[in-house]
Amino acid sequence: MHNLNAIVVGAGMGGLTAGIALQQAGYTVELYDRVKQLRPAGAAISLWSNGVKVLNRLGLGKAVADIGGQMDRMAYYSSTGETLTEFSLQPLIQDVGQRPYPMARTDLQALLLNRFGAEHLRLDSTCVGIEQDEHSVTAIFEDGHRATGDVLIAADGTRSRLRSEVLGAPIERNYVGYVNWNGLVDAREDLAPKDSWVTYVGDHKRASIMPIGGDRFYFFFDVPLPKGTASQPDLYREELSQFFKGWASPVQLLIQRLDPQTTNRIEIHDIDPLPRLIRGRVALIGDAAHGTAPDLGQGGCQAMEDALVLTNYLQTTNISVEDALSRYQTARLDRVADIIKRARKRSDVTHGKNPETTKQWYANLKHEDGRDIMSAIAHTILSGPLN
């Protein structure tokens, strides 16, 4: 299918990756986003090897390595600082053929936007509807602008407006049961070794520190809480001090050093696996297609896989756009459903959905030499399209 005109709605990880992949396939791409200024959601992203491989394929390997953190080891500690398990990630890297790169979302977004070309992006454009026939598809925007092309990629995030256009009905997000605070701090050895991802666990909570580029750590805290608890940034430090009272010294130092004004506080939601990802010439990708809890660190990676798989089918099948999208759906539906279910299951184990199960997980960590953890991560990576 030569010289397709693609319309992409949403300039997050999925939309930008799709834009780059489609451009490289020789297609004309128009990219739209409803925001007035592009700001990433969340402080950082743990880009596991399957996501990195997609960016390698798009020629961004060196640039990604430059902004990524050097994560060579992984460790779990009890809330009081006792080592539960610690191991090198080298066997995982050998197994899957690529190291992971945790990185600041701002850095990744800038990298992708730069490669895509900011001049092809229109901001302050809210897509409110779609029309399509057998020849084309049109995105209709709030300001009256209409964009017509051969294919429309809906990458408009977890609160997607276009999802209901594909499904024929709106979908509710599910509260997974915990609140997550996340942000960035300077990397210092009194918090964690600069090459290690460390996580403190206890009382169904987590405090975690991960190295990213620019000599910084990405951190997050998880606390199971009822839905709808109110909070303001000026209270974050006091709240976290209460929730993590008596936890090990690095956790206390982290709470003191974080900047409440640049820390995000999110109630974690997911979306049940969808029955379909396409309708005619419209395809859902990224969080619009599969809102998942972050417990497998696969949200961004799956968006990137979507973008690549979709572009591959548009490039390699010449029956019709609809046929290519149908093949994309077949290739992705089970894969993303599996990630959503496993992330939710993982979240339940970590956050005390069944307290006995969580207690057992803590006990198991003491006997873990890294093999089981790495094997589970490798399974997730190797069941993707670039294995």
From TrEMBL:
<dbReference type="GO" id="GO:0102099">
    <property type="term" value="F:FAD-dependent urate hydroxylase activity"/>
</dbReference>
<protein>
    <recommendedName>
        <fullName>FAD-dependent urate hydroxylase</fullName>
        <ecNumber>1.14.13.113</ecNumber>
    </recommendedName>
</protein>
<comment type="pathway">
    <text>Purine metabolism; urate degradation.</text>
</comment>
<keyword id="KW-0659">Purine metabolism</keyword>
<dbReference type="InterPro" id="IPR047712">
    <property type="entry name" value="HpxO"/>
</dbReference>
<dbReference type="InterPro" id="IPR002938">
    <property type="entry name" value="FAD-bd"/>
</dbReference>
<dbReference type="Pfam" id="PF01494">
    <property type="entry name" value="FAD_binding_3"/>
</dbReference>
<feature type="domain" description="FAD-binding">
    <location>
        <begin position="5"/>
        <end position="342"/>
    </location>
</feature>
<dbReference type="GO" id="GO:0004846">
    <property type="term" value="F:urate oxidase activity"/>
</dbReference>
<keyword id="KW-0285">Flavoprotein</keyword>
<keyword id="KW-0274">FAD</keyword>
<dbReference type="InterPro" id="IPR050493">
    <property type="entry name" value="FAD-dep_Monooxygenase_BioMet"/>
</dbReference>
<dbReference type="GO" id="GO:0019628">
    <property type="term" value="P:urate catabolic process"/>
</dbReference>
<comment type="similarity">
    <text>Belongs to the FAD-dependent urate hydroxylase family.</text>
</comment>
<dbReference type="InterPro" id="IPR036188">
    <property type="entry name" value="FAD/NAD-bd_sf"/>
</dbReference>
<keyword id="KW-0520">NAD</keyword>
<dbReference type="GO" id="GO:0071949">
    <property type="term" value="F:FAD binding"/>
</dbReference>
<keyword id="KW-0503">Monooxygenase</keyword>
<dbReference type="GO" id="GO:0006144">
    <property type="term" value="P:purine nucleobase metabolic process"/>
</dbReference>
<keyword id="KW-0560">Oxidoreductase</keyword>
